[in-house]
């Protein structure tokens, strides 16, 4: 019979998995306390939750959320990085952190309900954030409008210049 503590943790984990836009399953064993503390601070400042979890509970929570294909990633020590807003945010934090450290190693990724192997991590880490994508889109949309304004403005300024020259010639 499962303990009440495990039942509560399973309920919390099931809820978190259902709300998360992205879940990065990592191997963290080998990091010392200072490194884990630094990593947690980075995750916290990027609105990402980093949680050490039991593989069995994560398997059950995934099953309740109809996420299939996670079993192969759930061995050894496991910690998950959950993002509720920007699904690429955990990847950027992990990438930055692993530039100085060898760990955490990404074993698997759940991105918008789809399961990916950890080997796909680089694609997610190099993807632009939501804000970067929106700013690029806005710049692309504005570019034709700016060109149109200049194109319309150019003949009008030429007509104005011609009228000014005509006025000056008549006054002389």
Low-confidence stretches: none
Q: What is the class of the largest domain in the CATH system?
A: Alpha Beta
Strand content: 15-25%
Q: Tell me the domain tally.
A: 2
CATH names the topology of the largest domain as Alpha-Beta Plaits
Strand order of the largest sheet: 2-3-1-4-5
Q: What is the radius of gyration computed over CA atoms, rounded to a whole number of angstroms?
A: 27 Å
What does this structure look like?
This protein is an alpha+beta fold and 172 residues long. The chain is 56% helix and 17% strand. The chain is built from 6 helices and 5 strands; from the N terminus they run H-E-H-E-H-E-H-E-E-H-H. It has helices spanning 4-19, 33-45, 55-64, 89-98, 121-125, 130-171, and strands spanning 22-27, 48-53, 78-83, 105-111, 114-117. Helix 1 (4-19) packs across helix 3 (55-64). The chain is elongated and about 100 Å long. The termini are far apart. The mean pLDDT is 87.
Summarize the structure.
The chain has 172 residues and is α+β, with helices and mostly antiparallel strands. It has helices spanning 4-19, 33-45, 55-64, 89-98, 121-125, 130-171; strands at residues 22-27, 48-53, 78-83, 105-111, 114-117.
């Amino acid at each position: 019979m499962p303990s009440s503590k495990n039942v509560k943790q399973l309920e919390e984990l099931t809820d978190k998995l259902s709300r998360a836009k992205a879940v990065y399953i990592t191997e963290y064993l080998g990091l010392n306390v200072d490194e884990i503390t630094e990593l947690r601070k980075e995750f916290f400042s990027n609105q990402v939750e980093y949680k050490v979890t039991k593989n069995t509970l994560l398997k059950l929570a995934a099953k309740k959320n109809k996420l299939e294909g996670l079993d192969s990633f759930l061995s050894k020590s496991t910690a998950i990085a959950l993002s509720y807003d920007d699904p690429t945010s955990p990847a950027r934090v992990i990438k930055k952190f692993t530039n100085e450290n060898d760990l955490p190693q990404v074993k698997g990724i759940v991105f918008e309900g789809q399961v990916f192997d950890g080997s796909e991590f680089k694609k997610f880490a190099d993807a632009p954030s939501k804000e970067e994508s929106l700013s690029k889109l806005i710049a692309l949309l504005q570019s034709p409008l700016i060109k149109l304004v200049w194109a319309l403005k150019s003949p009008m300024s030429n007509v104005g210049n011609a009228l000014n020259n005509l006025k000056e010639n008549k006054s002389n």
